[in-house]
Amino acid sequence: MLVSGKDVMKHAHENGYAVGAFNVNNMEAIQAIIEAAEELQSPVIIQASQGGLKYAGVKYIAAMVKVAAEAASVPVVLHLDHGTEFLSQVQCLQAGWTSLMIDASHYDFQENIAKTKEIVEMAHQVGVGVEAELGKIGGVEDDIAVDEKDATYTEVEEAYEFVCATGVDYLAIAVGTAHGPYKGDPKIDFTRIAQIKARLNIPLVLHGSSGVPKESIEKAIAAGINKINIDTDLRQAYHRAVKKFITENPDEYDPRKINTPGKEAMKEVVKDKMRMFNSVNQAWR
Ligand code: G3H
Ligand code: 13P
Ligand code: ZN
Fold it and tell me: Ligand 1: which residue has its CA nearest to atom 1?
């Protein structure tokens, strides 16, 4: 069933676990994620970036996720990841998205508030949940690149002021993770997560979570994280499996045979993450 991001995030916040938010660009990824969620009876967030929308089309993604979600017994959220364009937000709402992220984190504080508030007011009219970002998360997403040295951690009091001023439902915070593959293990500021959680008492979001070790993920959830974004781990699993298949079967040209190991590999990653995030058997009906 397709549900609002507000409901899924509230449940995770109240029950002390995290929901996996997995990036998709095509049918195989959507199927892999839904199958994993169904098998583990976990709520799940399927998200597409603006790049994903450009690649597959807003209506294609919406239609595929709706078909998958309607057939599934678990709660499924369709979320816009790192929405920077007003037009993308409107197109997603029109197409039936149930959660939006407005990423105005590269603007100054007041501008971030103004842009976030605009989306919150619109989305709340139709019961759609909104995520915003405060602080700068390192790495590259879409056309925004943040150097590790320019990444800035979210400040507790600023976060409080931001949430009061915008009415945003869940907040992505910068606490030491970065998008893309890590060179070493990330140094996550768990104390900061706990302080922000205590002050805000709303669901918190961790970006750049691929490659973060299990113990760190568990500590982040214990400190108050309720949505964990995973993209790179899925891409790498897909790539490894498809590369292996093509190497072993160089004359096979049927895309169904080539894509199947890629899909299965993504499904295993999703299941591993759901176990790590403690979202197994958290689905409600
Ligand atoms: O945070 C960014 C996501 O990994 C999406 O990446 O913009 O290449 O689709 P993308
Ligand atoms: P990774 O690609 O590092 O998992 O980051 C995903 C993300 O934060 C999507 O918004
Ligand atoms: Zn992100």
Answer: 141
Ligand number, closest to the Cα atom of 51: 1
pLDDT in tens, the chain (285 residues): 999 999 999 999 999 999 999 999 999 999 999 999 999 999 999 999 999 999 999 999 999 999 999 999 999 999 999 999 999 999 999 999 999 999 999 999 999 999 999 999 999 999 999 999 999 887 766 666 666 666 789 999 999 999 999 999 999 999 999 999 998 889 999 999 999 999 999 999 999 999 999 999 999 999 999 999 999 999 999 999 999 999 999 999 999 999 999 999 999 999 999 999 999 999 998
**Angle (nearest 5°) at CA 232 between 76 and 163:** 60
Domain boundaries, the chain: 5-276
Fold of 5-276: TIM Barrel (3.20.20)
Asked if residue 275 lies in contact with residue 20, where contact means CB atoms within 8 angstroms, the answer is no
Can you tell me the distance from the alpha carbon of 245 to that of 252, in angstroms, rounded to the nearest whole number? 9
Q: Is the CB of 141 under 6 A from ligand 1?
A: yes
Q: Whose CA is nearest to atom 8 of ligand 1?
A: 142
Question: Is residue 133 within 6 Å of ligand 1 at its C-beta?
Answer: no
Would you list the DSSP string of 122-133? Answer: HHHTTT-EEEEE
